[in-house]
Amino acid sequence: MTNAPSKIWICVTGKEVPDWILERMTTADVATDGSFEIEASDGVVKVEAGYAVFEFGEQVFACPPKLVQEKLAAAAGEDNEVVANLANRAEAERERRREEKQAPLAKASGDKPLKLKAMIGSPPAPQFALVDQLMVDDSYQRSIEGGASQKLIVKIAENWDWRLCLPLIVSRRQGSLYVIDGQHRLEAARLRGDIRDIPVVVFDFDDPRGEAELFVQANRSRRTMSKLDDFHAAVIAGDTKAVAVNEVVTAAGLAVGRIQAWQYWKPGEVVFVTAITRALHSHGKPVVEQVLGMIARAFEGLVLTGVGAVFEGLCSIVQERSKAGNPIDSALMETVLAEVGIPGWKEAVDGAESGQERAEAMMKALAEAYAEAEAE
């Protein structure tokens, strides 16, 4: 007996069947799908497309290719050289396929084993919720009063498509349902007036802090959040820097705005949170509190457009004068600020091309105006 199959043939529809197989066919006809039956050495076998038919010594076998090794082992023994080689090749092929399946995962993890952390939270509960029962927590949610948001809401309402209405992410808190992600879709549904309920997935939260953290993660993963969106969510989530900024702003009687576009600002709202954060770090809390207090009193009831430059200039002057032992008189500076007015301070930096030039121009204007008032 030879060590390897002397003949092997793969069944393919339309392919001519060789004589050594024809001799073993139980019928003279081949089915339209290319299948037929043969009297194999181990019984009658239906040969279908893809099957391997092979001759080993005086024996003939038919089976799917993956079973050839098994058939050979039964006929020649496990220690047969051909069987052993086939076994090695089969194992190598299985290993290659395993590596191919793992390749995308290895690429994503940089060929390092994944460090899986414990899952957070419980699986959500998909359901429908009545539109009128869904609430929005304004303490961390985006403002939808701006023109862009209103246009988007109208567009969704006018072109409502259930195929595009993914479930809203909702928090169940103290018996109420708060929308974490999907506020525009909710408002569009309300605007239409003909949608009673809407699909949601519900998570349980004890307070707004956890909701705010999820809100930030959900929105950052899809699109860039504005600095103000990020700030308000960070305050509710307990971020120390954001909380510190919010505290000094509110202590001065001001509030951090929610919309970047100045056309929608309200009196007493500030949006220069980045400048305040820097000032707290470089000038300290007492200076920032003093400056914000002066701004609040000098421009009471006014929309604070362009006042970010005034804030930064004042912080530098207050700190310099304090170090020199000649502190600023807050009441006098408030009078100076009010007399020049917001439009006047904006004119002081007209023509400045860079942030540094604006800062220098504002500091000079503030220092000169204060010195003039001080001399009177």
Automatic annotation (TrEMBL):
It holds the Pfam family DUF6551. InterPro entries: DUF6551, ParB/Sulfiredoxin_sf, ParB_N. Residues 90-102 have a biased composition (Basic and acidic residues). Coiled coil: none annotated. SMART domains: ParB. Residues 127-220 form the ParB-like N-terminal domain. Residues 89-109 are annotated as: Disordered. This is ParB-like N-terminal domain-containing protein.
